[in-house]
Design brief:
The complex is a heterodimer of chains A (107) and B (199). In chain A, 0% of the residues lie in helices and 52% in strands. Chain A contains no helices and eight strands. Chain A has strands at 5-8, 12-13, 18-25, 47-54, 57-64, 73-79, 84-92, 97-106. Chain A has a five-stranded mixed sheet, with no helix packed on it. A three-stranded antiparallel sheet of chain A has the order 1-3-6, with no helix packed on it. The relative contact order of chain A is 0.31. Chain B has one domain: Immunoglobulin-like (Sandwich), CATH 2.60.40. Helix content of chain B is 25%, strand content 28%. Chain B is built from seven helices and nine strands. Chain B has helices spanning 9-14, 19-24, 26-39, 41-45, 48-52, 54-58, 80-88, and strands at residues 94-95, 98-102, 105-106, 112-118, 128-135, 142-147, 156-161, 167-175, 180-189. In chain B, strands 1, 3, 5, 6, 8 and 9 form a six-stranded mixed sheet that branches. The longest helix of chain B has 14 residues, at 26-39. Chain B is globular. The relative contact order of chain B is 0.20. The chains are: A mainly beta (107), B alpha+beta (199). At the A-B interface, strand 1, strand 3, strand 5, strand 6 and strand 8 of A face helix 4, helix 6, strand 6 and strand 7 of B.
Chain lengths: 107, 199
């Protein structure tokens, strides 16, 4: 199934400006604490880590635990230094990996 | 505004009830939740029977949090205090500088909007390097930990979390000088989880 994400941030910003970045990804974030109708435990399936970097420079990182809601949503801030491509990556249980890229133009 | 995949916008918009909705119009936000859970994969996979079990499985709090949970990391902290001390490296953080913004009365524990703000400059000499959130009575005390730097520009994060029951929540900030500051809040959760079973 195609993984749906939504990244909301300005495409252009002034150098020195602080911008808000909002990132959501469609993911069940199954906690590992729930049971199905037969009483069997549903295996944990969460996103454990989210990274945002520009080139090799990491600008934000989050470690997620089962208490983060399904379709994890994160808002964070960034002071624009230079133009570049922001790389967003999500990693989790059961080999989950997903990456998105958004260009940012600094003026 | 950039949409990185061609998803129907309305779904995502609906999946993000604003804080005002959560506080001011519980009925509307519950409806939004229902719409969300019907459309997103979590609902597709889970039957209604399973969903009604959430309060039972998730709501028993810390008593249930112990070692028998295969879902938990082997190194999961056994107590709220221990989880916090692990983050700070020993001492409990001092109250101050941090503002944890979350509704005091929560009508749906499945998706609780939360913001943490730290009053501190963000420059290479002085900045907030990490923020963590802990829950007193969820099965696992760690909720979220983020890492920031001087280029974050603003020491603030927002997300949505799950709450099993009424309990304390603590946000802790680590500053670049190594000190830790916190804000603790009591929240009341009126409906721990399932809404699909309702007529």
């Amino acid at each position: 199934m195609r993984i749906r994400t939504l990244i909301d941030m300005p495409r252009m910003a002034k150098i020195g400006e602080v911008i808000a970045i909002r990132a959501t990804i469609a993911h069940p974030m199954e906690t590992g604490y729930r049971r199905d109708s037969d009483g069997a435990r549903l295996p944990r399936n969460i996103i454990r880590a989210f990274h945002c970097r520009i080139g090799n420079r990491e600008i934000f990182r989050a470690d997620l635990f089962p208490a983060v809601s399904a379709n994890p949503y994160l808002v964070f801030y960034h002071r624009v230094r230079a133009s570049g491509e922001l790389v967003f990556s999500w990693r989790g249980d059961q080999g989950f990996v997903h990456e998105e890229r958004v260009s940012l133009i600094a003026q | 505004m950039t949409r990185s995949s061609p998803s129907p916008d309305t779904h995502l918009d609906r999946a993000e009830p604003s804080q005002a909705d959560q506080r001011g119009a519980p009925v509307r936000s519950r409806r939004a939740m229902l719409a969300q859970s019907l459309r997103w994969p979590m609902a597709g996979a889970a039957s209604c029977v399973q969903r009604t079990l959430i309060p039972a499985a998730f709501g028993v709090g810390s008593a249930h949090a112990g070692a028998s949970s295969p879902g938990a990391e082997p190194s999961a902290a056994r107590s709220y205090d221990e989880a916090i001390r692990r983050f700070t490296g020993g001492p409990l953080p001092r109250p101050g500088k941090v503002a944890l913004d979350v509704a005091v009365l929560i009508d749906n524990g499945n998706t609780v909007p939360l913001t943490v703000r730290v009053e501190h400059p963000m420059n290479p000499d002085q900045h907030v390097s990490a923020i963590a959130v802990f829950s007193e009575r969820n099965p696992q005390h760690e909720v979220l930990q983020v890492h920031l730097g001087a280029d974050s520009g603003r020491a603030e994060i927002s997300t949505r979390i799950r709450l099993a029951t009424s309990q304390k929540l603590m946000a802790v900030a680590r500053l670049s000088d190594g000190s830790h500051w916190s804000h603790e809040m009591d929240v009341i959760v009126t409906l721990a989880a399932c809404i699909e079973g309702e007529p």
